[in-house]
Amino acid sequence: MSADDALLHCAQELRQQDPDRYLVCTLLPPAGRRVALALFALDLELARIRDAVSESMLGEMRLQFWRDTLTGVAGGEVRAHPVAQALAAAMPKDIPLAGLLGLVDARARDLDETPMTDLAELSAYASATAGAINVVLLSMLGINDPDVAAAARAAGTGWALVGLMRALPRHFARRRLSIPEEILNRHNVDRDATVAAHFTPELGRAINDVVVEAERYLSTARQTPLPKAARPVFAIVLLAVRDAQALKRANGNPFGLKPPGPLSRQLTVALSVLTGRIRG
To answer: Which residues constitute the domain of residue 28?
Structure first.
């Protein structure tokens, strides 16, 4: 597969499965766009592992495949996988291997079926996945300001937390709980009713606790002055803020939630980049 075909594959996958971050890619200049497409497609591949395997050992094998693949890309050996080929084509020879391997390691938590212990653990997971990939992307764009990097991590963390709450109906269908155990206990959430997709006020309060934590991270990201080149990476912030507000208006009920349509989301991120406004 040619480099262009590999990048096209990444773009198509993101457009269908991760439209928010696909929008981020479209707002970057060509070189940065290629890097973002490859990075986000890698994260999508890692996120899919949990649903693609029937037992954790198989998932571990797939994670090891990506550790070996990324190490190979760093050494000039590229496997016949479109995402690996896109990474090799888009990134400089000195790829941030440690950061990419950290993304793989963070996804090992997906293979553990037990809920997160508390909000701190869930936030750390969001930071190590969506937050970390924002930091890697910034470094690949040549933006190394530590304050901007910290804000990018906060932006990804908040976006991921809101996304997890929006995706709860899909998780419940697989009998998975993405809400920390401590919050479930504090609000006396009925686990059986929850995984059976029965919304209760207790569940709504638990979800709102996570949303409030997400808003804290998003607020941190919104208060940081940004160089113009970094703006596209932060375009997801306003989308996450709007989704968080929609969940709160619905009293934490993710079922039947109707976030803004694709055109509205496109306009939101485009205006964010053009004006530099992510403060709402």
So the answer is: 1-112
What string of DSSP letters covers 102-122? HHHHHGGGGG--SPPSSHHHH
* d(C-alpha 231, C-alpha 225), whole Å: 10
- Pick the last residue of a domain from 61, 81, 112: 112
Total domain count for the chain? 2
- In this predicted model, what pLDDT tens digit does every residue of 148-161 receive, in sequence order? 999 999 999 999 99
pTM exceeds cut of 0.85: yes
* E strand intervals along the chain: none
Q: How far is CA 213 from CA 167, 207, 233, 265, in A?
A: 17, 10, 21, 23
What token pair was written down for 48? 């899919």
93 & 117 share domain: no
CA separation (Å) from 76 to 79, 84, 172, 245? Answer: 10, 11, 42, 46
